């Protein structure tokens, strides 16, 4: 657990010698209402008296993307916090969720009367209405948390017996106390967990029956027309309406009209496959084909990723609930690419847009555009271990790829808040977006919430597509194997033609399910009838249709054999920071490739990279002070504000590059 780990001897150990005793908290800032980390067990475990039961109504923040709070009845007993809509539901076994407070990172905000519990799988945001009740709940949670941690420390081999997803059935709980055989205890635990899962499924099926009999239930009709909600079988995927998502509240599982409870087999060999229509050495467009001479590009980085000895806990423990974009991080936590280059990575599979611009059917065009939007997340799968460099204000990046048929530029247009803008053009498409991120650390996981809209136009048909990005979350941020998931709904629309829309659901993983990284989507006509269905995994492949006749629309490129040693980079990512002698004189001095700290990290010199990083950050602070002292604002070089307050290209980059050339243009000294 974060903040408290179990040693091999079963004792609780502290990650930092500065922690206070079990009744204390780690304060971030005494001068304002900031988050405080509630400390846990300290010292050797000992026999403890079971704390009193605590129960009552609390406000729980609704799961993303829904906003606001709803009232739930909570019961805290033996270190396990269970909740449901009302007390009677808990007595009937209708549990919405369980939280093991002993295995959670707990933080509080006194003035706002907020309590956050990070369970690694989910983050629970709770709120209390009165100061007296807030103090009462915090006190009880402290005692139950220490009691639970003491119980785990004394009996580490029985830790799974009190899994929070287990049922509260009295008969089973009594059995746990009476049976002494370890194997029998294990069997009882598994049976208890199965009972809980079966209960959830039973509630779900009952609710679906009610919804099918209700005229107001959301109904999506297929274009042939068949109902989108199929019977459950190994060859079909059930669709679950949004209105019954509360039954999976325990796992904060995001459900929608296109969500599924049936998993597609990992073995998709039975599904027909299609090869790419655009090869690496030719580029098709406008009815003609021209041969492109490929530039020889590097196949690996100069140096493998170094071993980091940085204590993340010491850095992050004072930043619970804060935006981490304002927190300085040591260079050992970075990868040798920055956020501008990460935006370019979204174009690795731009051939999908090439195909879209050559497809007459508007619904099939939407399938290709949606698949392109999904493919943008593929490169993140192996990259949860490090973060990209934050661009400094005025930093730029270009990527000219004749082999892929596009050219790309990006610029950091704002520092507070940090905003990155990019633009790419091709014979087959134009792509642009401005993005800002909010990164929040919750004790065991970090949420990355992007804001902004991605745009793509297809000149062949006059289409203009827009879509939002989904929320990302990095788990096990402090210990264990870090992994990333993306969840939420992506809505794609053609602003110039309402003939079709698309909704893609990035399904949130369940802690007890093997299905991870799944996506599901539907393309509908103007009347809401489903024309195409899509499914797959965002890091592997996307299929159109239903098994066994589904067609593979996209499959991820194979990873380099030694990617684990080189930051988990794809081959495309390996090429992004390459700087050869022919390109060097053509770039502006603000291009990311010239950034010394990033270059030194790529070469394996972490000490030199850290020194340069601090110097570059100090230069940025000094430039900002000069602007403030002179009542001036920074003006981006290659982007401008549009009418809707978004950043778009001013179409001067490539013209200036060609004539007079960047060597004859004045630029600020960034590093």
TrEMBL record:
Give residue ranges for domain PH.
Answer: 51-146
**One Gene Ontology CC term in the entry:** filopodium tip
* GO BP terms in the entry: bile acid biosynthetic process
List compositional bias (Low complexity) regions by residue number: 13-25
Q: Which UniProt keywords apply?
A: Cell membrane, Cell projection, Cytoplasm, Endoplasmic reticulum, Lipid transport, Lipid-binding, Membrane, Nucleus, Phosphoprotein, Transport
Q: Where is the composition biased (Basic and acidic residues)?
A: 592-602
Q: Name one GO molecular function term.
A: sterol transfer activity
Question: Where does it live in the cell?
Answer: Cell membrane; Cell projection, Filopodium tip; Cytoplasm, Cytosol; Endoplasmic reticulum membrane
Q: Where is this region: Disordered?
A: 1-36, 587-613
The reply on keyword Phosphoprotein is yes
Concerning SUPFAM superfamilies, the annotation shows: Oxysterol-binding protein-like (SSF144000), PH domain-like (SSF50729)
**Keyword Phosphoprotein set for record:** yes
Primary location group: membrane
How does the record classify its membrane topology?
Peripheral membrane protein
Q: How does it assemble?
A: Homodimer. Interacts with RRAS. Interacts (phosphorylated form) with VAPA. Interacts with OSBPL6.
State the family it belongs to: Belongs to the OSBP family.
Record function comment: Phosphoinositide-binding protein which associates with both cell and endoplasmic reticulum (ER) membranes. Can bind to the ER membrane protein VAPA and recruit VAPA to plasma membrane sites, thus linking these intracellular compartments. The ORP3-VAPA complex stimulates RRAS signaling which in turn attenuates integrin beta-1 (ITGB1) activation at the cell surface. With VAPA, may regulate ER morphology. Has a role in regulation of the actin cytoskeleton, cell polarity and cell adhesion. Binds to phosphoinositides with preference for PI(3,4)P2 and PI(3,4,5)P3.
**Mind telling me which PANTHER family this protein's record contains?**
OXYSTEROL-BINDING PROTEIN, OXYSTEROL-BINDING PROTEIN-RELATED
Q: What is this protein called?
A: Oxysterol-binding protein
Q: Identify the species of origin.
A: Salarias fasciatus
Lineage here is: Eukaryota, Metazoa, Chordata, Craniata, Vertebrata
Gene that specifies this protein: LOC115380954
């Amino acid at each position: 657990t974060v903040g408290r780990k179990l040693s091999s001897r079963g004792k609780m150990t502290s990650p930092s010698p500065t922690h206070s005793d079990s009744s204390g908290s780690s304060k971030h800032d005494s001068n304002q209402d900031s988050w405080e980390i509630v400390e846990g067990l300290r010292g050797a475990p000992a026999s403890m008296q079971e704390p009193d039961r605590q129960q009552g109504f609390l406000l729980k923040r609704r799961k993303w993307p829904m906003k606001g709070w709803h009232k739930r009845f909570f019961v805290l007993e033996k270190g396990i916090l269970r909740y449901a809509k009302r007390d009677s539901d808990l007595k009937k076994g209708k549990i919405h969720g369980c939280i093991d407070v002993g295995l959670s990172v707990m933080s509080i905000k006194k003035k706002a009367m907020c309590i956050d519990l990070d369970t690694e799988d989910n983050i629970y945001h709770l709120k209390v209405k009165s100061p007296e009740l807030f103090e009462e709940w915090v006190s009880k949670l402290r005692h139950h948390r220490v009691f639970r941690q003491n119980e785990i420390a004394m009996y580490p081999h029985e830790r799974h017996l009190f899994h929070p997803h287990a049922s509260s059935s009295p008969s089973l709980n009594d059995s746990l106390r009476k049976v002494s055989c370890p194997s029998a205890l294990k069997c009882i635990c598994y049976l208890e967990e199965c009972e809980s899962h079966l209960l959830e499924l039973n509630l779900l099926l009952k609710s679906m029956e009610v919804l099918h009999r209700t005229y107001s239930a959301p109904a999506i009709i297929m274009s042939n027309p068949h109902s989108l909600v199929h019977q459950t079988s190994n060859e079909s995927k059930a669709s679950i309406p949004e209105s019954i998502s509360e039954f999976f509240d325990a796992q904060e599982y995001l459900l929608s009209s296109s969500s599924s409870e049936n998993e597609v087999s990992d073995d998709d060999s039975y599904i027909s496959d299609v090869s790419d229509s655009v090869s690496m050495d030719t580029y098709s467009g406008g009815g003609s084909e021209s041969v492109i001479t490929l530039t020889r590009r590097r196949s690996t980085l100069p140096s493998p990723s170094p071993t980091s000895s940085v204590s993340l806990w010491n850095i992050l423990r004072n930043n619970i609930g804060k935006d981490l974009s304002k927190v300085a991080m040591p260079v050992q936590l970075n990868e040798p690419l920055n956020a501008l280059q990460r935006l370019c990575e979204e174009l690795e599979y731009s051939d999908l847009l090439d195909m879209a611009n050559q497809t007459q059917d508007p619904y099939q065009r939407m399938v290709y555009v949606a698949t392109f939007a999904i493919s943008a997340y593929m490169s993140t799968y192996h990259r949860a271990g490090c973060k990209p460099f934050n661009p400094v204000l005025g930093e730029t990046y270009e990527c000219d790829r004749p082999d892929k048929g596009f050219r790309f530029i990006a610029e950091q247009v704002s520092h507070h808040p940090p905003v990155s803008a990019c633009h790419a053009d091709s014979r087959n498409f134009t792509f642009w977006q401005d993005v800002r991120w909010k990164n929040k650390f919750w004790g065991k996981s970090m949420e990355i919430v992007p804001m902004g809209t991605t745009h793509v136009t297809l000149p062949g048909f006059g289409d203009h597509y827009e879509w939002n990005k989904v929320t990302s979350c990095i788990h096990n941020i402090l210990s264990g194997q870090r992994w990333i998931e993306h969840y939420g709904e992506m809505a794609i629309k053609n602003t110039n033609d309402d003939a079709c829309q698309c909704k893609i659901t990035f399904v949130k993983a369940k802690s007890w399910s093997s299905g991870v990284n799944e996506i599901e989507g539907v393309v509908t006509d103007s009347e809401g009838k489903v024309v195409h269905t899509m499914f797959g995994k965002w890091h592997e492949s996307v299929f159109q249709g239903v098994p066994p006749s589904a067609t593979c629309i996209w499959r991820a490129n194979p990873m380099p054999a030694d990617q684990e040693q080189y930051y988990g980079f794809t081959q495309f990512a390996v090429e992004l920071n390459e700087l050869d002698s022919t390109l060097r004189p053509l770039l502006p001095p603000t291009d990311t490739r010239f950034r010394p700290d990033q270059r030194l990290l790529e070469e394996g010199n972490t000490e030199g990279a850290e020194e340069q990083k601090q110097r570059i950050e100090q230069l940025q602070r000094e430039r900002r002070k000069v602007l403030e002292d002179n009542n001036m604002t920074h003006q981006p070089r290659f982007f401008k504000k549009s009418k809707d307050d978004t950043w778009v290209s001013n179409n001067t980059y490539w013209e200036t590059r060609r004539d007079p050339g960047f060597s004859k243009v004045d630029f600020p000294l960034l590093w």
